[in-house]
Amino acid sequence: MIGSDNRRLACLMSAPIVRTAAHAAAASFLPWLVGALMAYALLYQGGSPAEGETAADARSDGRDIFSADWLSLPWALFPLVTAVAVALLLAVRPTPSRWLLATRNTVVYAVVLLLTALARASAQGAEAPVDDAFLALALALFTLQLPLCFLLSAALTGPLEAPDGPPASPPRDLERGPSRHRG
């Protein structure tokens, strides 16, 4: 059992850089893109026009606000910084557990999101930048960024393992065959 875990760990440690980078990019860029699309659909296009404003003007304002929010430098760099952090974590501390890896990647995504939102809110002079950062984290949950990061990380863990390694040896109990003990 222990030998099997060590072999699996060695397979993860010897994962090619290209696969590690692809895993990190998928775990960061795809959730960010889905979050941007969900935020655009739910937050920026879903509002009703203000008094004296046409629906077209409200949609145009929504697009302008969306561009200022999601395409600003901190948010445009967010998936890149997240991908680098996930790739470094994969390279430095590989894990044989699919679910531990998915949890760790999601935590990295959330921490980078919090730090980015905190830095942006502080730079804009917000009264409570910590509140803004946690609001961004809540929005990441509602726009499916965090669940998608977790699911993609779990789904992509399989390709990180070396496919042509030696098969795991069966436990010693199975090698002996069925027990002949009669009670």
Task: Describe it.
72% of the residues lie in helices and 0% in strands. It is mainly alpha-helical. The longest helix has 28 residues, at 17-44. The chain is elongated and about 60 Å long.
Any chance you could write out the topology, listing elements then pairs?
Layout (H helix, E strand, L loop, with lengths): L1 H12 L3 H28 L10 H16 L2 H20 L5 H26 L5 H14 L2 H11 L16 H4 L8
Helix pairs in contact: 2-3, 2-4, 2-7, 4-5, 5-6, 5-7
Quickly describe the structure.
The protein is mostly helical. It contains eight helices and no strands.
List its traits.
mainly alpha
Structural class: mainly alpha
Q: Uncertain spans, ≥5 residues at pLDDT below 50?
A: 8-12, 159-163
Let me know the largest β-sheet.
Answer: none
Mean pLDDT over the full residue set: 75
User: Radius of gyration in whole Å, from Cα?
Assistant: 23 Å
Order of helices and strands: HHHHHHHH
Give helix % range: over 70%
Report how far apart the termini are: 29 Å
